[in-house]
Amino acid sequence: MALKQGLFICFEGVEGSGKSTQSKLLYQYIKKNISKKVILTREPGGTKLSEKIRNFILNDKNNLDVVTEFLLIMAGRNEHVTKKINYYLKKKYIVICDRFFFSTLAYQHYLEKMNINFIYAIQKIIYPKLYPDITFLLDLNRLTSKIRINKRNKKRNKFDQLSNKKFNIIRKGFLKISKKYNKKIIKINSNQNISFIKKAVLNKTIEYINARS
Ligand code: TMP
Questions:
Q1: pLDDT for residue 150
Q2: Looking at residue 149, what is its pLDDT?
Q3: Ligand 1 centre and the CA of 212: distance in Å?
Q4: Which of 50, 139, 146, 169 has the most CB atoms at less than 10 Å from its CB?
Q5: Which tens digit of pLDDT belongs to each residue from 114-150?
Q6: Which pLDDT score is estimated for 69?
């Protein structure tokens, strides 16, 4: 049965926080066990063009200026929001997104020190009415993050190679954001094991699904 309204769920966190794993697990669980329409997507990325932009941004050989990088992220987001996220939300899907706007605040504002009003201004032009219904912030310490990143097989990008100092700035940024948007962000201690986190995410998601069914 379709929901009365689409549901937009985002995952946020520092590198190695487990957001990609948890967003996949949630997607697979909903698909298998709950008869609701669901898609899994990510940022930067999510559409053909936005994935191209993603590859460009993550390639550290491009050595992008901070503002150029931000504008590319927002260009990719514009494609993603207008052509995919809004499309599926209108069709009453559950849209699960691995990273979204809070990453822009954490990385471009808290880490790169970009003016927050400039960031909000561009955001408001691109998608004035779209807010995640729930965001799961997976918070973890540097040590656990390093252990998780080292276990991965995939090629590392420039963000996986952050210094401890930068990691902590981003982490603290996310924690400040979670205080500011505390009604919409569920903070989960991601130093815990995968199945414990999965359960916490699932319980909260089911509450939202029931409220919209
Ligand atoms: P991922 O490897 O977790 O998918 O994310 C790729 C990187 O993109 C991540 O380390 C941080 C960066 N990023 C930003 O800097 N700003 C943003 O708005 C988003 C969505 C991601």
A1: 85
A2: 86
A3: 30
A4: 50
A5: 999 999 999 999 988 899 999 999 999 999 998 888 8
A6: 97
Query: Where do the domains of the chain lie, and which CATH numbers do they carry?
Result: 7-212 (3.40.50.300)
Residue type, 41: T
pTM score of the predicted model: 0.95
Task: Give residues (CB < 6 A) around ligand 1.
Answer: 15, 42-44, 73, 99, 103-104, 107-108, 159
Atom of ligand 1 nearest to the CA of 112: 15
pLDDT tens for 77-91 read 999 999 999 999 999
DSSP labels, the chain = ---SS-EEEEEEESTTSSHHHHHHHHHHHHHHHS---EEEEESS-SSHHHHHHHHHHH-GGG---HHHHHHHHHHHHHHHIIIIIHHHHHTT-EEEEES-HHHHIIIIIIIT---HHHHHHHHHHH-TT---SEEEEEE--HHHHHHHHHH--SPP-GGGG--HHHHHHHHHHHHHHHHHTTTTEEEEETTS-HHHHHHHHHHHHHHHHHHH-
Is 160 in contact with 98 (CB distance < 8 Å)? no
